[in-house]
Design a protein that fits this description.
This protein is an all-alpha fold and 248 residues long. The protein is built from eight helices and no strands.
Length: 248
């Protein structure tokens, strides 16, 4: 096993396998590498989910990176007055769709491994994917599938103002301000929509878990009642047997 293979393991096996690998390296006389391996940090749940996406969903990851590159280019074109706001909006939507597709895959990964699907955790996965799409340093940290902690998406500074016109006069500045407000409102609405979708899925999952627990509780109560009846019958039989023994 190579050190990078640790990040492809189920999360609960990371620490045990890391320690085993470090011990094996020490037995082989590779003390320097063993020390490096022993210091590897167990990934957060969100980082683990992103690592699994990188390792198992390569086509979707490539689509995310391509969408991020296209969005950055569209931003540059608009700021250089070579592009238009409509094209920029299409690129932004494509990048958001690529992230959402991977979020759905991440839900499946987290579910299959028994990790709780909190909105905050999925938001961390989403932020990390946005960062990897748009920031070269973040992408470099993500692309080998060995991320230890989630990343924070801070956006592209020029995007919010990209649909604004030049500023030679008061009316143009007013249009620029309106454009900024509309862009900010669109981004806020998209973020709120994503949170609403996540919260809705969380509610459905919780309701399903509640129904399962309620059914299991009902079965357990019936089993307890049957056990009590069986115990009472056994006690009565035991009492009669003891009386018969005494009489004899």
């Amino acid at each position: 096993m190579q050190p990078r293979d640790l990040y492809g393991l189920p999360l609960e096996k990371f620490t045990e396998q890391r320690n085993s690998l470090a011990q094996e390296l020490r037995r082989q006389g590779e003390r320097g590498q063993a020390a490096t391996v022993s210091k590897l940090r167990k990934p957060s749940v969100a980082a683990w989910a992103v690592n699994q996406l990188v390792r198992t969903q390569q086509r979707e990851i490539d689509a995310l990176f391509s969408a991020g590159d296209a969005l950055r280019q569209a931003q540059s074109d608009v700021l250089a007055r070579r592009g238009d706001a409509a094209s920029l909006r299409r690129r932004m939507e494509a990048e958001r769709n690529a992230v959402q597709e991977l979020i759905e895959r991440a839900r499946g990964l987290l579910n299959s491994e028994g990790h709780e699907l909190t909105p905050a955790r999925l938001e961390q996965v989403s932020d990390t994917l946005h960062a990897a799409a748009l920031d070269p340093d973040a992408r470099q940290a993500v692309k080998d599938g060995c991320l230890e902690r989630e990343l924070r998406h801070v956006g592209l500074g020029g995007l919010d103002a990209a649909s604004a016109a030049p500023r030679p006069g008061r009316q143009t500045r007013r249009r620029s301000d309106d454009g900024k407000q509309r862009a900010a409102a669109r981004q806020a609405e998209a973020a709120a929509r994503r949170r609403l979708e996540v919260a809705g899925r969380q509610l459905r999952d919780a309701a399903q878990r509640r129904d399962r627990v309620a059914s299991e509780l009902s079965d357990a109560e019936r089993a307890v009642t049957a056990g009590q009846e069986l115990l009472a019958t056994a006690e009565e039989e035991h009492r009669r047997a003891r009386e018969a023994l005494t009489d004899s």
